[in-house]
Design the sequence.
């Protein structure tokens, strides 16, 4: 299988390294193209990139600008009954996501941790599904939820084998997991909310602007992706992540602040509010967790702060920036199927992407 | 894909029901053969069995005796570039397991929850791997560990994408899980061991002879299956499940008692011993759990009773007959990847089998 990689940031670089660490003689893949936002290279299959040491230099010394029309045309030209092609989109770009239908129509498989196409407008998603059905090319997006954890494949298997999903509930954001594992342990006291967010940012757990995590949209996007994998037409979240009932953690007075630095400087003004929520939860023997829920029975999908008993797995079992996902189904009842582990980070995200690629061969 | 089913007991029947509940017009499968220990039917692809209501009658009114040589020959005859064939072995038979190399050589895919071939002598397993490599036919055995939980597929993906497995640790037996979740909760007192085992047997959680669970061999077999999926040559368990350091829970004086009834009548003589272990664990703030460990770093593989702190997930998070499996790897470190849920039962086991079949198409 010929592979073209778009996006060579943290996840993209790690992905290329993992891909090229499969010994060439046993690898079913040939890496023939790399694109960053400013440069691109594309080789004939016989001249595929093999060296984990040299790919960065090969790309950085190219003078070609990315041109996705040319890429699509040339890649299609390589497809024949003995040769499949896959594009791996490691960007988080809306623009690249909008190209998936065109790639799939051309018979090119699409693998990505990019949530945009799968959580955005239903129109684009339907085009993707239709294009894949028409050409037989496949799209896989395991690492859009839970990074390398087997979340989407498990959900698809439950559905395909005839199980009925009743509810999916989980901590889906590594950032939110870290923040609340530190902030709310069941005790009425602890570090201030703003200090926890600051440390999370220093450790690289948040986006440069923490409001991009605290708005809850990352969780809402994941819930739309799961809703579409369930396929139940009663879920409002099918439409787009904007249809998820999302409760932002950004204090209204801090909405629209342009920089992360300024945001963090003002966040302490709201520490008392967050502290009161922690104290209230503690009084009930509970902790605060930012969770996502897809309730198929009630037709309700929401992302927001909830309280859980200190004996609940969301309180006892989580640490670091772990994700935890509980599938309540007809067969996994009364006790759910649970998947837990690191839900963010380049190594595990790239692993999920490579795992998808391996499913194609 | 043409499907032949061998074994129509609890799991086998549920599997056939799940398979036939996929609407025929969208199903990629055609069920053309069923075999029990005493009867068999085999149809031409055009006359495949479609009715979830009638398959039992079709089989029970057949006068044909199972004949696996004929079955193999006829199924091979159906294979062509457009038609694949799979045999689903839902028995726990050593004899059927010994046929896998022959089936794979003939180009027939093999799917099974039967642990025998994958946990028995290395010789048979190597024949299976070789036969699959030669013909390209595939073998999948997800439901040999954790029933429908995605345990083996997750492990294979970790390995295939270059992660290094350091240790796998878990509660792998639904029966042992139930017994110790009931028997040892952290408190020094509780129901007697023999009464818990009796109730478990009444609920159908144990084999007819509870010693077949208490010997720990079921867990040892699963550890050998996982060891082979890891493929590290340092693991003694690769050789066979008999090479796993297994600590049986059968009191030596009760070894070899022929019937389950007699065994249960005498088990109360040993309640005091088990009670003492529970009290000792409780004094240390711990619970007893029957676990399996594959320690790749130490090259040690063992099944036996261990003590875990009452705050450990094996104590806090388990219930019913749940399995829980922790993967400690280079990437999932310091916190493991965890999979948890019902690890026994016909519905979830059959689901794992059907999930494997879906991976083939």
Sequence:
């Amino acid at each position: 299988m010929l592979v073209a990689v778009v996006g060579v940031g943290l996840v993209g670089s790690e992905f290329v390294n993992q891909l090229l660490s499969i010994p060439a003689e046993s690898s079913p893949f040939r890496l023939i193209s790399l694109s960053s936002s400013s440069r691109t290279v594309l080789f004939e299959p016989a001249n595929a990139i093999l060296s984990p040491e040299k790919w960065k230099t090969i790309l950085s010394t190219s003078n070609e600008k990315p041109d996705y029309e040319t890429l699509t045309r040339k890649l299609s030209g390589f497809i024949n009954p003995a040769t499949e092609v896959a594009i791996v989109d490691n960007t988080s770009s809306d623009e690249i996501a909008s190209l998936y239908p065109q790639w799939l129509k051309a018979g090119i498989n699409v693998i990505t941790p990019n949530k945009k196409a799968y959580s955005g407008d239903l129109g684009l998603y339907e085009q993707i599904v239709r294009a894949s059905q028409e050409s037989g090319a496949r799209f896989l997006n395991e690492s859009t939820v839970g990074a390398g954890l087997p979340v989407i494949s498990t959900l698809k298997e439950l559905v395909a084998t005839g199980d009925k999903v009743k509810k999916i509930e989980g901590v889906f954001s590594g950032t939110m997991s870290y923040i609340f594992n530190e902030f709310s342990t069941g005790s009425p006291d602890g570090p201030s909310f703003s200090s926890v967010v600051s440390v999370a940012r220093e450790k690289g757990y948040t986006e440069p602007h923490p409001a991009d995590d605290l708005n809850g949209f990352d969780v809402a996007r994941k819930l739309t992706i799961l809703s579409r994998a369930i396929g139940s037409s009663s879920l409002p979240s099918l439409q787009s992540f904007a249809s998820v009932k999302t409760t932002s953690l950004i204090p209204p007075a801090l909405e629209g602040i342009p920089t992360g630095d300024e945001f963090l400087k003002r966040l302490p003004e709201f520490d008392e509010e967050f502290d009161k929520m922690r104290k209230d939860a503690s009084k009930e023997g509970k902790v605060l967790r930012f969770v996502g829920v897809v309730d198929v029975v009630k037709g309700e999908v929401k992302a927001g702060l909830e309280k859980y008993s200190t004996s609940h797995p969301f309180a006892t079992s989580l640490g670091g920036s772990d994700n935890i996902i509980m599938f309540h189904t007809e067969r996994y009842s009364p006790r759910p199927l649970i998947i837990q582990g690191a839900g963010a980070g380049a190594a595990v995200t790239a692993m999920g992407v490579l795992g998808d690629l391996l499913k194609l061969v």
Summary: Chain A is about 40% helix and 20% strand.
